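Response to reviewer comment R2.3. The reviewers asked that we include at least one raw input/output pair. We reproduce the pair for Electron transfer flavoprotein subunit alpha/FixB family protein here without editing.
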Amino acid sequence: MPEIDPAEHDVSELGPKVQSIEDPEELEALLSAERDGENRDAVITVIESRLDRIADDEGGGDGDIDLDAMSVAEIGNALQDVEDPERLRDLLDRETNGEDRDPVVRLVERRLNSVEGGDEGDTGGAVTDREPPEERHPELDHPTADKQYVTALDDGTYRDMWVYCETQAGDLLDVSRELLGKARELMDGYNEEYVDGNAGEDGGGEANERVVAMLVGDDVADHADECIALGADVVVVHEDDRLARFRHEPYAEVVADMARWGADPPARDEDRAPTPPSDADWRDYDEPRYLLFPATNNGRDLSAQVQAELDSGLASDCSGLSIEDAGISNPVKTGDPGSTRTFERVLHMKRPDFSGFEYSTILCLDNPDREFHPQGASVIPGSFEAPEPDPGREGLVVDHETDLDDDWFRVEVTEFDRLSGGVDLSGHDVVVAVGRGIGADPTGGMELALELADAFEDAAVGVSRGIVTGSYSFDAHVESYTAEERQIGETGQEVTPDVYVAAGISGAVQHKVGCDEADTIVAVNTDPDARIRDWCDYFVEGDLFEVLPRLTDAVEAGGLDAEAIADGGGGVTPGADPATDGGGANE
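Raw output as returned:
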């Protein structure tokens, strides 16, 4: 049995641990344990990738690259160790004369450009001209490097930040309000940074760019005034009684048509004419510069479809946004190896990466011969504060009309049940959350969390993603407290209590997103190196089964005895004086 039991960790926890293992035999044992146990594809991929990396390191990076046997991802990793241009040209020839996969060809060409680019502006490795896909693959109806229905705009004009404002059961969602407030903040800063101060006043200079809200559904026009009060300059409304509930295809078609309203891009279907430009006299550009969606179930569905229809990219589940210039040296983006190109007005989209422990910033940048707009993101609910509405704001409300194809409604929902309500953890003074640390006795650990919550006047119990996705067995009387609706984190709820108690939670970034705005965070964990120690206010090194009862006793007694808590574990590491700050936990 390996030192690490993979069944006790999710992939976000295993990733960093696997990367620290240097012994191939230990990795093989870990791989075998995973296959004999939960057999998760993502975990197996992480372990196999680490094994491959160690094998490459031991071989000095000179092992042969088997193009036929390796996946695109494996080829991409292997190419990073190849420094010989002649070898790269040989790989390129082998691929183009063999399977001729566009992703592999691009990877080899990029590596060749990087290797030949040299230092200090040497541009000896010019970017290879790419044949149009219809010339490369004349035998195919829809060449693989081309989209079946849409083509990117050439020399398009892009303006404004558009926000899809989601409604449910006739109500505007809070995340829609949050997005409008953030969009207003971003575009105010954008206009100050990039736009002529005399814009629009006397016909000179560049006009200020706007926030455009989109409302789609039945009776959604009632929300137009609120959208303006929250920061929108323009509200585009499409109403149809068939859109009372979210429908996969018609919603995507309507929102995409709104975005390219007045432009003349290729329509999804050749026999469908684009909306006449005269119907869009309120705008003078082809597509939005930026496009934001809520990262709800419907918003995730819609954002991916719309951005694909507009032939651009999408950063999903973001929690931070800013607009800045970006200097990029990647030859695929610059067209000139060894040089740096400055991209202006770039939307920086911040999200936790797949390891769960770091943030990544996603950029949507044009290629030298290819435009990627709108720059699109879906945003996790609760990432931003909703603004105070300004009833005095004025704006423009525009009705959008387009024919809805009957074929888009070929699936009909004849009956559905609406849940009376879920569990809202956001309004409590205290939240007690438990994670995989309860694994020794799941029911008992949940009972301890409930007892601690009951000791406060206003507290609720939440769980980490590890509890929701794990295979724990709970007794019936606590099972309801382990449901997904109580999950805290990036894909769950975001809470801002006065006190947040995290028991048996390692502290991945996805969880941090859900509780980072709490006034005081108290963590209980047996691992002194747990990531949560870096960002909590108090860290109690100890077993939650011993520490939580002492916390409950302390709260019921009206104070927090740090020494008593420390007796239950290895000690308390406070971010402040427990004697002065701990008592606030009973408020």
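The radius of gyration is 27 Å. The first helix runs from residue 11 to 19. Further pairs are available on request from the corresponding author.
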